[in-house]
Amino acid sequence: MDILQLIVSGLANGCVYGLIALGFVLIYKATEAVNFAQGDFMMLGAFITLGFTNADHMGLPFWLSVILAIGIMGILGYLLDMIVLRRMFGQSQVAVVILTIALGFVIRFIAGLIWGHEPQSLESPLSGLELRFGGLVLGMDEVWVIIVTVALTALLYVFFARTKLGIGMQASSQNQLAAYYMGIPVKRIHSMIWALSGVVAAIAGILFASKGSIDPTAGLLGIKAFAAAVIGGFGSLPGALLGGIIVGLVEPFAARYMPAGYSQIFPYLILVVMLVVRPHGILSQIQTKKV
After folding, report:
1. Which residues contact residue 229 at a Cβ distance below 8 angstroms, ignoring those fewer than 6 apart?
2. Is the dihedral of CA 128, 129, 132, 137 positive or negative?
3. Residue 120's beta-bridge partner residues?
4. Which residues does residue 139 pair with via DSSP β-bridges, in sequence order?
5. DSSP state of 117
6. What confidence score (pLDDT) does residue 286 get?
7. Is there a contact between 1 and 134 (Cβ–Cβ < 8 Å)?
8. 262, 30 in Cβ contact below 8 A?
9. How many Å apart are CA 127 and CA 134, to the nearest integer?
10. What are phi and psi of 132, to 5 degrees?
11. What is the pLDDT of residue 170?
12. How far is the C-alpha of 247 from the C-alpha of 252, rounded, in Å?
């Protein structure tokens, strides 16, 4: 029964990693850029929800706060691309990576300035609710993390595979000039994908904060999520979820059966092994770039 409890806890944590990894993959699929501030987007989305919801702040209803936070993060993602990232057009990918790393530091500083650096809890209606099956105890917050993550991954997969907009986003990443000549509004699509990434980050942050405490350093979870995206297959939406689940499952078992402190290094050991054995990830989606 203890093993089942570890599996459920690992799945819930892994789904949060998977959602953050989805943000990495979304931007990469559409722009071939890597947003190392994705974890900080997640943290910011959680704090915005917390600011709207908690009684010592604005005290708005939880679900209204969720909608507002998701909308704000979507707008922030759109404006970030429109105002900042478009000015990087033509620059190397390294420059974009450095920009997003710096952006992460700025977001953590602003979050600490506004909400402080002490861990805070989100007042969620799911907090304290449990499902019991024999000796197995499932927190409703963990159950909802798993359900929402799987549903969102499926929706995004269908969006990219079946809709004109999703296919247009992938086409713009393959060849921006050709996509432009085909009538695809490349710049607007890039802004839309950054907005979508902000929405996904907000959802991840809300789910993460509803099952534990949040502080500005929580944005560093993006490093583990990046490892998860690479393990699952960078560019694959199901791969992002799979990689997140693998990382999430490894951690509690390593913490339980290995000496103290070793659990934090296991995700990166898996990443190293994967890069050596299968560099493109478990569910790799390697495509020939059209020129």
Report:
1. 21, 24, 25, 239, 240, 243
2. negative
3. 214
4. 130
5. S
6. 52
7. yes
8. no
9. 21
10. -120, 130
11. 72
12. 9
Digitized pLDDT (tens) for each residue of the chain, 291 residues in all: 578 878 888 898 899 999 999 999 888 877 778 899 999 999 999 999 999 987 666 778 989 999 999 999 999 999 999 998 888 766 777 888 899 999 999 999 999 999 999 998 888 887 777 777 776 777 788 888 889 988 998 898 888 888 887 777 777 766 666 767 677 777 788 888 899 999 999 999 999 998 878 999 999 999 999 999 999 988 788 889 999 999 999 988 888 887 766 778 888 898 999 999 988 888 876 554 444
- CA pseudo-torsion sign 28, 32, 35, 36: positive
- Burial of 4 (C-beta count, 10 Å sphere; 0-12/13-18/19+): middle
Tokens standing for residue 25: 């993959």
| Gap between the Cα atoms of 269 and 275, Å rounded | 10
Residues with Cβ within 8 Å of residue 245, at least 6 apart in sequence: 10, 11, 14, 15, 17, 18
Angstrom distances, CA of residue 280 to CA of 75, 231, 239, 274? 32, 8, 11, 8
Q: In terms of pTM, does the model score above 0.90?
A: no
For residues 24 and 240, is the Cβ–Cβ distance under 8 A? yes
In angstroms, rounded to a whole number, what is the distance separating the alpha carbons of residues 206 and 196? 15
Q: Is 34 helix (H, G, I), strand (E, B) or coil?
A: coil
Cα distance between residue 77 and residue 21, in whole Å: 16
| pLDDT confidence of residue 289 | 45
* Rounded Cα–Cα distance for residues 103 and 108 (Å): 9
Domain residue extents for the chain: 14-219
**Which residues, 6+ apart, have CB-to-CB distance to 129 below 8 Å?**
139, 140, 141
* Residues ≥6 apart with Cβ < 8 Å to 146: 11, 12, 15
Helix (H) or strand (E) segment spanning residue 28: helix 2-31
**What does the block give as tokens for 19?**
């959602």
